[in-house]
Design a protein that fits this description.
The protein is of the alpha/beta class. Helix content is 61%, strand content 11%. The chain has 24 helices and twelve strands. Strand 11 and strand 12 form a beta hairpin. Helix 16 packs antiparallel against helix 17. The longest helix is centred in the last third of the chain and has 62 residues.
Amino acid sequence: MSNQVYKVFEEIEFKAKLLAQYWNNFHTEISQHLPESYQPEIQELSHNLETALTQLIFELQNPTLTLATTGTTSSGKSTLVNLLCGAEIVPVAVSEMSAGAVTIEYSKEKSLIIDETPGALWECGEWRGISDDKIYQRLYQAMISYIENRETQPNLACPQSTISYPFRLLKESQLQLPKGTRVRILDLPGLAYVGDQGNANVIKQCREALCIVTYNSAETDSQKVKSLLQEVVQQVKDLGGSPARMLFALNRIDVFRADRSWPESENRFVEKAIRDIKNELTDQLKEYTEDIVNLKVVKLSTWPALLSLQIQNQDDIYSAEASKKADNNFNGLIEDILEDLPRNTQKWNRHDKNRVAEALWKKSYAEEFQQNLREHINKNFPQLVIPQIIERFNIAAGNAIAEWATQTTTAILNSSEEQYQQECENIVQIRLSLKSFLEISDRNLKEPFERLDTKVKQVLAKQSEDDVVKYIRTIISELQEVEPYDELGVKLFPLYSWENEFQKGINQVLEAIAKSLETGRVDLDSPNLKRANVLNVNLLARNLNRLVDLGYKASVAKEGKTMEARTELEKNKLKQLNEELNELAIHLNIVIQDVLKQISTQELNRIYQAVSELFRCHLSYFEKEGNDIAPNIAIKFPESELSKVESNLTFNFQFKAGFAVTQGTWEEAVQVEKKKRTWYTLWIKKKTFYETEYQPRSSDNAKLPSIEDLLTGWVEQAKEEDSERVNQVARWLLDQIDCLKKNVDKIQNDIIDRYQERLDKANQEITLDYEKQKSVWQPMEKKAQNLAENFSKLEEI
């Protein structure tokens, strides 16, 4: 494919205009041999084609290129956005600053809009002709206000902002796009904030975006690196679709320059990081295995690259500030020329600055990144938007023209009385054959899921002890061995992998709880816990701290303990422990609900995508076989409409905990005062002495569960719902298949009905002799078939 993307769009436009010309030639010729009664239909087809062609050309000349940026914790995502813009307009901080999505649209004029959102505690409005610094400051104030208040106001909506800006991505990156291309950068929140509803809605809208995912190369702690890899997978799942449209950037790669043998250590890191990222993605997104093999991962250091641009700014003050930052932070990148430069950056002349900027640009891998981004856009942008444009064109006009031309010429060739009767009988047979084939295909598709449904019902009724999660995996594996579904490979993996993702999410939360209690130091910094509402996580942390203060830590948390509370103080402490453990169940339930809600959203989207792939395969097979059964009726199913699935699956989880406090008795040793006469006083006087007696007392007894017991209990509780969730999936799948069959049945019957009507009309209005059939209509039928074939080839890009 050419590196000039606009040529791909121009080629489709040229082919579409050529189709319009083919149709004009065809209907002009066929009209000479048709009665006047055919003209209204021809005119309607021509009008619809003209309208659809106008819309197609407009969409091809004015597509929207969206670059969505996201990344792992402290990966420099915001600095990347600023690099793409060529200026520091998005707030950057040491801690995670992302709070709300920012859309940056290309425009020659600068402006900022901060949307009015429910309960906003920051200034909202629109500012035109605003400076870079003012954009930065207003966004910063909105973001910091949100971050500081979201803990106390959990329902506070996150800021939503739109910047109009003449960013450098379009001006200097040499992108060869159609002239009317609308380009925007969608700065998505970091992982810690994707749970916010406003951000989730924005993420949902970027399914057709090209994505850049930044990875923090500076992290060396093995546990945190593991968390980063999990974050990468979460980001990919949130963005949805194939990782093929995602460019992965190993940011902050300059950290290896501090090593004596930095090229070797950098190369080792890059090779390992690419391998680990691909392995992690393949493990959890098997449906995209082929795409992941060819994943594009590039090196980058966004901050020195951005400073390189800022140093070259014609504003001397702005340039001087950037020079100072470069000298303070990136000596290692400019060490080759440092000796030639004045130590005071204020004394650097323009030539000095240009040398520094050139070194920073080169050693930050900015040029390689820019080249890779350009190639990524060239390769993926046309494929991302053109098929949808063509599909809309075909639905609006293309399919109808191909059908009309094919059916009309076929009908006329079968319009003589003898052939008409034969063709009517043929249509009856076609209907029966198609109906039979549809029912067989539908039955083949439904049968595995009906078996699954039956098995789940048996398990729920305690008539079977089979593992339904394993059973659904078996069902899918069997389906993928049958034609045509054997073409799907691992595309149906999400239909049975979702339960494992729930368990991993639950386990990760529970492991953080266990570690906090066993060590006595509460640490809830794990990828999945970052996805929960921050207020709920904080309440959980306080609860854990109270348990630690009450002594539920270390060996007690690890092994459990039998307690016999005798004093009021001990009884109160036991009561508090019981209450706090029950409180733990409440907070944990809320947090896990948050986490599983996020996982559910990801996994359900993957399920919907997998079912869409299944239906697309089913439709393609049925369309091919249908046209073999009825080759001259032009059966066509709009996949974009029929392969859609209803997004109405939901999963729920509930947990309980605590322990029983029982009443018991114990015998307390009491010293009782007694007196008796002794012999040495001649039994006259009594001497006082004390005797031990045992008196019954009440106690509160309890067996404190170990954290392992508690967590195992919660895991088991989650598993107890497996069957119900599989039941939901099975019923939902069967409903979707029934809906698909109903829609397919209607569309094919409508197509056949239209052919019957055209056959009836031809029989009534056209007299066909042998010579005319041979000299006019047989060649015309061939031209109709060629026309239909040319319309179908428009999809080939």
